[in-house]
Design a protein that fits this description.
UDP-N-acetylmuramoyl-L-alanine:D-glutamate ligase; about 20% strand; alpha/beta; 8 helices; about 270 residues; single chain; 9 strands; nine-stranded mixed sheet; globular
Length: about 270
């Protein structure tokens, strides 16, 4: 059977994050991608200018259409901006017995624009954390989930990951990209122990969609039958290479002002500036 992953997330009109980044990642890693669109955004490399939420009943209809027909091997959940969307997704996951769920608790865009309503944070904690095989917050998101200050070192990162596990998550990948230093260190904390994933920090503005890409890369590995540790290692390597190759892309008229996307197809395509 062809490995299949589905992304449940928001659409990014500029193609760098959200549904579009997820589908690119699935394809680059050899997985067939399906999608459930939970929100539409008007955005580009400069920021988000508008959000249109998809009605909860239509989110449910998309999930029923996809899961009733496709043999879904893993699920990536991204931007769910409102309480009804979170409730519809949780109910759909239960209705179809979905497993291998990767939850990226998208709260704030790279540009700084808030993507999750304040009142929806508690619903996300209550309904989605316990259903997730792994939750993948960055440092600000992890702090927001547990009501703490942002972690500044690896000891604090591990402690916050364990606090998120105490809310019901099976495992937590806490991402250290917002810290400083020569390395970007992520920690995967779970019942099997702690996996430290370090990569050389790359100096680039082109980091739009990094979190979306990492979580969907983990889902791709799970869909192919990898265990969580192996899938996360593969995802970290893939994202690091995509960031390193991001400067090859020239998509914005004003690259000095915003955040460009990763180069999802760095291994397949040699982009050339026109």
């Amino acid at each position: 059977m062809t490995p299949i992953a589905v992304t449940i997330a928001g659409s990014d009109s500029s193609g760098g994050a959200g549904i579009q980044a997820d589908l690119k990642t699935f394809a680059a890693l050899g997985v067939y991608g399906a999608s459930v669109i939970a929100a539409l955004t008007a955005q580009n490399t400069q920021g988000v200018t508008a959000i249109q939420d998809v009605p909860a009943d239509f989110i449910a209809a998309q999930m029923d259409a996809v899961f009733s027909d496709l043999a879904v091997g893993a699920v990536k959940i991204g931007m769910l901006s409102q309480v009804p969307a979170i409730e519809a997704v949780a109910a759909g996951l239960d209705r179809h017995g979905a497993g291998n769920i990767v939850l990226d608790p998208v709260m704030v865009a790279t540009s700084g624009d808030r993507l999750l309503a304040t009142e929806a944070v508690e619903t996300l904690r209550r309904l989605l954390l316990p259903r997730a095989m792994v939750v993948t917050p960055n440092l600000p998101e992890a702090a927001m989930l547990i009501g703490a200050d942002m972690a500044r070192d690896e000891g604090a990162m591990e402690a916050q990951a364990r606090a998120i596990m105490a809310l019901g998550a099976h495992s937590v990948l806490i991402k250290g990209g917002h810290n400083h230093g020569d390395e970007s260190v992520d920690l995967l904390v779970g019942p099997g122990g702690v996996l430290r994933l370090a990569a050389k920090r790359i100096a680039t503005r082109h980091t739009h969609g990094t979190g979306c890409t990492l979580s969907s890369a983990i889902a791709a590995g799970l869909a192919k039958g990898l265990d969580l540790f192996a899938a996360t290692r593969q995802a970290k390597d893939y994202v690091s290479a995509a960031i390193a190759a991001a400067d090859r892309l020239r998509i914005s008229r004003h690259p000095e002002k915003g955040h460009g996307p990763l180069n999802h197809f760095h291994a397949q395509t040699e982009w050339r500036e026109a």
